[in-house]
């Protein structure tokens, strides 16, 4: 028996979107409808309304609840989706009253992630997020078993079915975390080997559907999955990219962010987002054609701060300029003459060369080439340089001195402070 017995339905949805304390945003509703469609669900009708505060029992008021009931009967929708976060009791009360499945925004995003996860690690992370979210809502699935087990073959150790399920869920969460720790160790080994070889890592970040994967394919000449839908990419992908007049870098494509991204997902995908935390540079990809691009930029920066990646240098990449009038691919410079933004169209492959040149310039300014003479007693420093710098050449002289030609990232320049 499944932990939660749910009907295999959900093809047609009734959407509920309330303006709480006059905070209505048509853009928020449009984004939620995109989420619904990304989950392969057809939105048949939208119920709108406004309240100063959500109702404690049903989130919506009694009048709006009756309207939802009536429209459910008329449209034959088999799931109700709220563009809000519902408490476990609100969700339970609504399901009991409406007699259909009720999901909130977090449930919907979790469902999309469950559909999109491809790798073993991605599936584990999605399951972890689902279990962490559902562990507070177990009573919804087991309302008929909130009593002591009894009867022949059902006498247990004195715990209710609900307590048993909570214990089993806790065990599964521990198992998943243990497996993810092993996967994270493997990723850490890869990151260390790149650091030893002084190969810079550049990570693509941005709002979902900003065109990160399309840009990733254009930069790395790859063919990873691209679709005009939210959360098309879940599993991180790494590729080597050769920059003009510099050499190899590692480019990482990561999951997109969104408004009100469930905390459970941020926590569960922390190991995937580790590629972002450990990156030398973030390419912040923005949909230049979006009317809400500044809000989307702010939302991405909020998540970056939450995962501890807000101090990593960013290069803004304004994508989809082909959708703008009178805007050609170009590079923006700040007052000091440093590159601060690149405008391009990854889909049309216009301006991608400008970004590659900008990355090469950044990598050159972020490294220093030095000729060094190390004395025999400086063997520890020599070992550190082999770990953190790219050693171009090494010659040992008759007196034991070691002549090194190295390229070292500026973040490791402290190693040379006494030379």
Textual characterization of the structure:
- This protein has helices at residues 26-38, 62-75, 88-98, 105-116, 120-134, 138-141, 161-196, 212-220, 263-268, 274-277, 293-306, 352-365, 379-388, and strands at residues 12-20, 42-51, 79-82, 101-103, 201-206, 237-243, 247-253, 281-287, 314-319, 330-333, 339-343, 367-374, 389-396, 402-409.
- The longest helix has 36 residues, at 161-196.
- It folds into 4 domains: 12-103, 3-Layer(aba) Sandwich (Rossmann fold); 118-180, no CATH class; 197-365, Rossmann fold; 367-416, Defensin A-like.
- Strands 6-7-5-8-9-11-10 form a 7-stranded mixed sheet, with helices on both faces. A 4-stranded parallel sheet has the order 2-1-3-4, sandwiched between helices. The protein has a 3-stranded antiparallel sheet with strand order 12-14-13.
- α1 (26-38) links the parallel β1 and β2.
- The protein starts with 11 loop residues before the first strand and ends in a 10-residue tail after the last strand.
- α1 (26-38) packs parallel to α4 (105-116), α4 packs antiparallel against α5 and α5 (120-134) runs antiparallel to α7 (161-196).
- It contains 13 helices and 14 strands.
- Residues 1-7 and 140-156 have low confidence and may be disordered.
- The protein is elongated.
- By secondary structure, the protein is of the alpha/beta class.
